[in-house]
Amino acid sequence: MASQADRHALYEQAVQDPERDVRFFSRVYRRLRGRDALRLREDFCGTAALCHAWAQSMPERTAVGVDLCQETMDWGTRRWIEPAGEEVASRIALVHGDVREPRGPKADLACGLNFSYNCFKTRAELREYFEAARAGLDKEGLFFIDLLGGMESMIEGVTDNDQGDFIYRWEQARFNARTHELLCYIHFVFPDGSEIRRAYTYDWRLWTAPELRELLLEAGFSKVHFYWEKTDREGDGTGVFYEPSFVENQEIWWTYMAAEA
């Protein structure tokens, strides 16, 4: 089963929910700006599933995706953009390049998701990226990132998530408490016992919420919003986000930040 599987398709199924992101970004932008966001820039776009979901959501919307991996963007073009038809495809542009170099027209909304900015391990590098993200926004633009935290985010361990037809295995192989450098792998495990080991490798620095907020403000953003997801009685996420004044730490959590240009 592993030999017949595609790692990009498995990643999209296990990790991403672009329709949820589009809904959340749209609601926040409309609440803060009083109008719909139309122009998206997706940094670290990978397969550009979010670009596709954004362009599909409204006929006026356009998307620019930026990534260093041409092979992954080519895969996304075949899977998402070409089948969407010319009307949608004409409103999506994929750029092979560094996210620290602003591309295309200024966007209403930009994002760097899946914790990808953790590839920048120094304050200077991350601030440079945040400055570029701000430079690529119009004067009312918003920039979104998601972030990972909690006690288990800073220890070594393996977490299995059952996707039905495969297991998505997240391995934190090494964490350096002195530098916050974090080495992680994604593996996919199948019912017949076969595996795709180290389908993805992440050599990161795990940035904390206050560090990210400070760097966003240093990069010139005027205000930073920290959103937290409400949970139900079983502790599962509800998809509803609010801005808390206090958050009690948990074993593991992820959430969004939104920075105003």
Question: How does this model look, in words?
Answer:
The chain has helices at residues 7-15, 18-33, 49-57, 70-81, 86-89, 123-135, 209-218; strands at residues 39-43, 62-67, 92-96, 107-112, 137-149, 157-162, 167-176, 181-189, 195-205, 223-231, 237-242, 253-260. Helix 2 (18-33) packs across helix 3. Helices cover 28% and strands 36% of the residues. The model has no long low-confidence stretch (mean pLDDT 96). An 8-stranded mixed β-sheet has the order 3-2-1-4-5-12-10-11. The chain has a 4-stranded antiparallel β-sheet with strand order 6-7-8-9. The protein is globular. The protein folds into 2 domains: 2-150 and 208-260, 3-Layer(aba) Sandwich (Rossmann fold), CATH 3.40.50; 155-205, no CATH class. The longest helix is centred in the first third of the chain and has 16 residues, at 18-33. It has 261 residues and is α/β, with parallel strands linked by helices.
Key terms:
7 helices, alpha/beta, 2 domains, 4-stranded antiparallel β-sheet, 36% strand, 261 residues, globular, single chain, Rossmann fold, 12 strands, 8-stranded mixed β-sheet, 28% helix
Q: What is this entry, summarized?
A:
The chain is of the alpha/beta class.
SSE blueprint:
Layout: H1 7-15, H2 18-33, E1 39-43, H3 49-57, E2 62-67, H4 70-81, H5 86-89, E3 92-96, E4 107-112, H6 123-135, E5 137-149, E6 157-162, E7 167-176, E8 181-189, E9 195-205, H7 209-218, E10 223-231, E11 237-242, E12 253-260
Parallel strand pairs: 1-2, 1-4, 2-3, 4-5
Antiparallel strand pairs: 5-12, 6-7, 7-8, 8-9, 10-11, 10-12
